[in-house]
Design brief:
By secondary structure, the protein is an alpha+beta fold. It has one domain (19-346): BirA Bifunctional Protein, domain 2, CATH 3.30.930. Helices cover 36% and strands 19% of the residues. It contains 11 helices and 13 strands. An 8-stranded mixed sheet has the order 1-5-6-13-12-11-10-9, sandwiched between helices. A 3-stranded antiparallel sheet has the order 2-4-3, with no helix packed on it. The protein starts with 18 loop residues before the first helix and ends in a 16-residue tail after the last helix.
Length: 355
């Protein structure tokens, strides 16, 4: 070692045993463990594979703001900050530029994507962190059917190029990404598992069922209750499957289905009991979007911290005209699942409380 060294390295064969110490001294963790170093090299290849896949299919890589006046593109509790120069309260973004990339569709770009950091001021567990990387893309003149075909191909490409296989086991689930993926219906799945029809129920009925299932829930709004009911159902699904037929209530940015306006053209990838991808045929009707934002505004007033903040400048853009568009995003949680690691293990420097 060509520098002054005042502390000994960890014992060669055992390395750092304490998990908290490993994360605080990640430099020693990587130095003493070739497996950990290999994991992070694989993660670089994971994002490189995704980036190259998108570029080869004509998507333009863009950068959008990470500081926003209103958070958009997802339902989550944001981090708050303040701009001293503008004397303006701001939020760290909770999505990777969804409402900004849609503006680019209106501007005449047909295919864009961004890989970047998102921030959500929520709980931490094996599948969730407050700071993480997502990829989001937007594709003009495409719909959710086109999106499902593209994502199936992308996930299979990532699995083969990064891990050399398509069959995996994680979180007590086994799944194989090869072949055509099954599709399941949101309403049918919830009804089969719980007996509740999400389009014909009451808050009281859902609370009673969630109490029977011993699920912890936020009962501020119908949207949050329905979402919790679905989360009970999804944990049994190994996948890969595409979940479709989401109620409009839980999909404020998704285009409604022609055959049933209470349902939307939304799709989610379900693997190992969790959502590892979310997309829509994007809502491009400004009148419908303004009405849905009003509903979200009421949810915020009722105390729903995860409700979406209305963005009327976005509605104004839609009034000028945005082409039919498919949008989709997926998180680094997908890498954690394929690597069979808790998501915290797959970040170089996860947030730690000071000693």
């Amino acid at each position: 070692m060509l520098s002054k060294s005042l502390r000994p390295l960890p014992e060669k064969w055992h390395g750092l045993q304490d998990v908290e110490e490993r994360f605080r001294k990640r430099y020693l963790d990587i130095l003493m463990s070739p497996e950990i170093k290999d994991l992070f090299e694989k993660k670089v290849k994971f994002w490189d594979t995704a980036r190259n896949f998108m570029k080869e299919r004509g998507f333009l890589e863009v950068e959008t703001p990470s500081l926003e006046v209103t958070t958009g593109g997802a339902e989550a509790t944001p981090f708050k900050t303040y701009n001293e120069d503008f004397k303006l309260p701001l939020y760290l973004r909770i999505s990777i530029g969804e409402l900004w990339q849609k503006r680019l569709m209106a501007a005449g770009f047909n295919k864009t994507f961004e890989i970047g950091r998102a921030y959500r001021n929520e709980g931490t567990d094996a599948n969730h962190l407050q700071e993480f990387t997502n990829l989001e893309f937007y594709w003009a003149y495409a719909n959710y059917e086109d999106g499902m075909n593209l994502i199936e191909e992308l996930y299979q490409k990532i699995a083969q190029d990064v891990f050399g296989k398509t069959d995996f086991e994680t979180r007590g689930h086994k799944f194989d990404l090869s072949g055509k993926w099954k599709r399941i219906d949101y309403r049918d799945t919830v009804k089969k598992e719980t007996g509740i029809d999400v389009l014909d129920t009451t808050e009281k009925e859902i609370r009673k069922k969630l109490d029977e299932l011993k699920m912890v829930y936020d009962d501020t709004t119908m949207e949050r209750l329905v979402d919790t009911l679905w989360k009970y159902c999804r944990r049994k699904i190994s996948g890969p499957v595409f979940l479709t037929g989401h109620p409009k209530l839980v999909s404020p940015l998704s285009k409604s289905m022609e055959k049933n306006s209470n349902l939307t053209e939304r799709f989610q990838v379900i693997i190992a009991g969790a959502e590892v991808g979310n997309g829509f045929s994007e809502l491009n009707d400004p009148i419908d979007q303004a009405e849905r934002f009003e509903i979200q505004k009421e949810l915020l007033k009722r105390g729903d911290k995860e409700a979406m903040m209305p963005d009327m400048e976005f509605v104004e853009m839609l009034e000028h005209g945005m082409p039919p568009t498919c949008g989709f995003g997926f998180p680094e949680l997908l890498f954690a699942f394929l690597a069979d690691k808790p998501i915290r293990e797959t970040q170089l420097f996860p947030l730690m409380k000071p000693k």
